């Protein structure tokens, strides 16, 4: 696991650290070709420079976000924002359904919107 992500996870409370560690473990195994790093102060995984999935600590939960999640077939994610992102909030490590998370990770490899070039395209998203 990326050293910066380990540090991020270790800075959380015990409950949130357990959630972050579990998410990072599953994501790392599911996206073996991804680059992971802290981006905008949160752990994020990228495929060919395009942000795919990340998580962040909120006041009352840990939020998992898939940048292209609104286009996934697998249920369980909530729409977030005006682009194609979708989220799932966790308050306990037992809330993480590994089987579903693996399905979302599989979908994230083939269903992507081009966030990498959104600035060049002046806010317009194109599906890859």
**Main sheet overview:** 6 strands, antiparallel
Shape: globular
Terminal CA distance? 27 Å
What share of the residues lie within helices?
25-40%
What is the count of distinct domains?
Answer: 1
Tally the helices: what do you get? Answer: 3
Note poorly predicted spans.
none
Structure summary, number of beta strands: 6
Protein name: DUF1801 domain-containing protein
InterPro entries: YdhG-like (IPR014922)
Organism: Candidatus Dojkabacteria bacterium
Pfam family, one: DUF1801
How would you concisely characterize the structure shown here?
The protein is α+β, with helices and mostly antiparallel strands.
Word description of this protein:
The chain is α+β, with helices and mostly antiparallel strands and about 130 residues long. The protein has one domain (about 5-110): Aspartate Aminotransferase, domain 1 (Alpha-Beta Complex). It has three helices and six strands; from the N terminus they run H-H-E-E-E-E-E-E-H. It has helices at about 5-10, 15-30, 100-110, and strands at about 35-40, 40-45, 50-55, 60-65, 80, 85-90. Helix 1 (about 5-10) runs antiparallel to helix 2. It is globular, with a radius of gyration of 14 Å. The two termini are about 25 Å apart. This is DUF1801 domain-containing protein.
């Amino acid at each position: 696991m990326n050293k910066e992500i380990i540090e991020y996870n270790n800075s959380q409370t015990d409950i949130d650290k357990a959630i972050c560690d579990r998410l990072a473990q599953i994501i790392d195994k599911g996206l073996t070709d991804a680059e992971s790093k802290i981006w905008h102060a949160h752990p994020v995984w990228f495929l060919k420079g395009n942000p795919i999935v990340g998580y962040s600590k909120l006041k009352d939960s840990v939020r998992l976000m898939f940048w292209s999640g609104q286009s996934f077939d697998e249920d369980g994610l909530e729409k977030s924002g005006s682009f194609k992102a979708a989220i799932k909030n966790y308050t306990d490590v037992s809330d993480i359904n590994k089987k579903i998370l693996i399905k979302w990770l599989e979908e994230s490899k083939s269903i992507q919107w081009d966030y990498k070039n959104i600035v060049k395209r002046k806010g317009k998203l194109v599906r890859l």
